[in-house]
Structures are given as C-alpha cells and as structure tokens.
Design goal:
The chain has 273 residues and is an alpha/beta fold. It contains 7 helices and 16 strands.
Length: 273
C-alpha cells in the first residue's frame, strides 16, 4: 500500500457525531497496529468543536484543521491540491475514508493497488461492504436490504442499466462492474483531481455530477468483494437507520450537505500539526 494516500475527513459539531468519531478513531488506531499506514494518512478536520473528537485528533500524526467548516468535498479538494507541499511525496492512489465507517481487511487494498497498477480500463474501486454471491441482500430495492448496513441500488447511473459483476482473473477479491464510482473508496489520485477541477467550474455539485464526470473517463469500476469498510449506522427490523450519518444531520448545527454542495476555495485558514 506504499502508493496509497489515506484520507479521513472529520466534522463533529454535536454529541452524535462526537460519539461516532470516537468509535471510528479507535477502529483506525487498531488498524494501524496491524497495517502501519499512518505515515501515509492525512486527517482533515472541518472545525470540530466536540471534545471527544478534539481529543481523538491528537492521536493522529498528520492533522489539517480548517478554521471553518468547508464541507467534505472542499476538504478533499484542498488535500488533492496541497498534500504534496506538506508530505513531500506524490501518491498514485487515494483511499478516502468516511468518518462514520468502520474499516477492516485493509490487506485487500494491496491486491487492488496491484490491479490498478496494471490495468488502464478502471480508475476507481468500490470498497464498501458487499457480497457478489449474496447481492440480493444488498439490493436497496429488495425486502432483504433491511438486514444489512450497506444496501445499494443495483443499477448503474447514469446509464440506468442493471448492474453486472464480472470476476477479474488472477485476483482473489476483485470484480469488474458497471456501477457508478463512489467518492469513498480507492481511486487514482490524478483522475480524482481532474474530476474535481472540472466540477469546480459548477456553481454547485451533487453526487450525480461526480458519477457523470467519472463516466467521461471510464465506463467501469472495480469492486472488492467483501469490502474494506462498513457503515457504522445500525438498522432496526424495519430497515430504519438508527444512527444518523453526516448526510442526514441537522444543517442548522453547522453541517454542510455532502450530496449537494459547492467547492469552497477561499475564506478559511489551515492549521497543520
């Protein structure tokens, strides 16, 4: 995983998010003991004020703190444009970690990195927990999706075609798919930078804009069977999410919508520890 830049973006403005990040940070600290990836990890904090989060941030070696909340998209764009100035190293890939996900089996990224090194037809790999063999459980349009934490819609956007999954020869965990790319996961860093540069011309950006922009470069993605991350949110027997993620938090508390946003490029300062 020597070519991968790991990025975690945080923002804790209330107790709910504070409690979530405490659990996530413990998970990541445990992974560091096994995989030793902290030398390649950046944490970008969007002006958190909650005490548990501020305490947890001190345990990470490279933390960039924004003077105000600029949102997930803007924080990631800042990292893409500026990380080399601080780390004095250039990476080929970026593994973007959501701050409300638990991560596991990071050794699968070694295989994914090798695949991207040797294949030009794919620019991004989904890492969300998923089973090709039991995909019916993860189908968001299915009754069974209430049994899992990470349901998805098994249709490709923007083509609106049914998703396909093709086993990639010589790789244990990798499949090729026509599902749209996700911001969270493993991507070619130069590709992501190009996409963000194009999106920066828009007054506002949505997840769908990101999907379509990726489609201009590639018509397929990779999927890690089994995944390397899962949503921390639990679900009750009716499928209702029990712990809110950032997309559903009250914007009145200062959170920015990560599904419909804009890229903020000025009006804030960055403090690097």
């Amino acid at each position: 995983m020597k070519k991968i830049l790991f990025v975690l973006i945080t923002c804790s403005l209330d107790k709910s998010r504070d409690d979530v990040f405490e659990k996530v940070s413990k998970n990541i600290l445990q992974l560091e003991k096994k995989f030793r990836f902290f030398k390649d990890l950046i944490v970008f904090d969007n002006a958190s004020v909650s005490q548990k989060t501020l305490k947890c941030l001190k345990k990470f070696p490279k933390v960039f703190r924004s003077s105000k909340n600029i949102g997930l998209w803007s924080g990631l764009y800042w990292i893409l444009c500026n990380y080399k100035n601080y780390l004095k190293k250039e990476y080929d890939y970026i593994y973007f970690m959501e701050s409300d996900c638990i991560h596991f089996n990071l050794d699968k990224l070694i295989e994914a990195e090798h695949f991207l090194d040797n294949n030009q037809e794919i620019g991004s790999i989904r890492c969300q927990k998923f089973s090709v063999a039991f995909k019916f459980l993860y189908n968001k349009d299915s009754f069974f999706s209430r049994l899992v934490n990470d349901p998805i819609r098994l249709r490709s956007f923007p083509s609106n075609k049914n998703a396909y999954f093709i086993k990639i020869p010589n790789y244990k965990n990798l499949y090729k798919s026509n599902l749209h790319a996700k911001l969270v996961g493993l991507s070619k860093i130069q590709l992501l930078k190009k996409i963000f540069q194009n999106l920066s011309k828009n007054d506002s950006i949505t997840e769908k804009d990101f999907f379509c922009e990726y489609w201009k470069f590639y018509k397929a993605i990779g999927i890690i069977n089994g995944g390397t991350m899962t949503d921390l949110a639990g679900r009750n027997q009716r499928g209702k999410i029990l712990m809110s993620g950032i997309n559903t938090l009250d914007n009145n508390k200062g959170y920015l919508d990560s599904r419909n946003s804009k890229l903020i490029r000025k009006g804030f300062k960055i403090i690097y520890n």
